[in-house]
Amino acid sequence: MTTLHTVNKHSLNSDLLSSCLRVARAGDCILLIEDGIYNVRTLEDLAAGQGCELSGLQCCVLRDDLTARGVAENALPDFISAVDHTGFVALACAHRQSVHWF
Amino acid sequence: MKFTIVLYAAPYSSQASLSALRFAQAALEQGHEIVRVFFFYDGVHNTSAFSVPAQDEYDLVRAWNALILEHEIDAVSCVSSALKRGVLDTREAVRYERTGGNLMESVVLSGLGQLVDASLKSDRVISFGA
Amino acid sequence: MTSNASGRRNLTFISRRSPYGSGYAKACLDMVLSAAVFDQNVTLVFMDEGVLQLLPNQQAGNIHAKDLSAALAALPLYDVDKVYAEQDSLTRRGLLPDQLAIEVMLCDADKIAEIIRQSDVVFTL
Questions:
Q1: C123 near C13, Cβ under 8 Å?
Q2: Which residues of C43-66 are buried (b: 16+ CB within 10 A; e: fewer)?
Q3: How far apart are CA C85 and CA B86, in angstroms?
Q4: Which partners does chain B have (≥3 C-beta pairs < 8 Å)?
Q5: How many helices (H) and strands (E) does chain C have?
Q6: Segment A42-51, tens digit of pLDDT
Q7: Taking a C-beta distance cutoff of 8 angstroms, is the pair B119, B4 a contact?
Q8: What's the CA angle centered on C41, arms C38 and C45, to 5 degrees?
Q9: Active site residue B119
Q10: What pTM does this model have?
Q11: B62 interfaces chain A, CB cutoff of 8 Å
């Protein structure tokens, strides 16, 4: 059984993502929302620094929050996909638990 | 799926309220059910009918009210969170001798037991905060 | 997921904030106690700044607040006995397990991940 994690703050401003990465496990999804979208630039390095394996995690970002903040979807790293709110709901359905880091 | 949505943050002070509203809208559009929206902690500020946003600002409070009424969602504001933050229904306003109640018409004041109850009845509990 | 016949679910609360500076720590405890009163299977995990709720000798009256650690001491009265603190969070903040205001079980991130997997609902504050 897998978990959807949402993270709404930048890792340079908060330890939310760091804590999320500590307890996320293979099969889980991390969805970056609100100011958490800024993590698209820092997620890979942060995970590496913590010895966290990202390859088993699904990493997503909420599209409207990304574009609202001037971060281009086509600049996303390959392992992060943008979803809309319909996709957010679908992720919530797909994962049995959800942990909301805010 | 049956969803409960918990909102801990006030409108406008963060994006949480809008995020929660948009999640709720998307879930309903896809045919899911919202068992309850539970406004807790600063989230109770979303249920004050006294909110007057600027003319060019999105009216979050009225948007919540409209969503709740349109879909007949059971919406609860935590009474202890609400009272101390000055969100009262008419009955509490009379009880505590305040000049008037300001609770949005579509919401009732109740206790945390309603959140526990919603958690038992829902497939997913989705939380938004700041 | 549906409740079992007795309407009892595994509700987990992850308390991440220090006391008094924000109201979240108290709000989390209020939720824990409500869940316990409604006879749910409650697990409470202190991690990150949340472990600071476990500091002894809190004199909250000095700031017109109710002593949160005293409220935590009442957890056993509500039959909340699955109370964990993340070891790393304690260590980073210079807290020793035998100097905490209440008895807790120490855990690591793997245990927290396991607790999450076994939960029906997780509240993170």
A1: yes
A2: bbbbbbbbbbbbbeebeeeeeeee
A3: 35
A4: A, C
A5: 4, 5
A6: 999 999 999 9
A7: yes
A8: 115
A9: no
A10: 0.97
A11: no
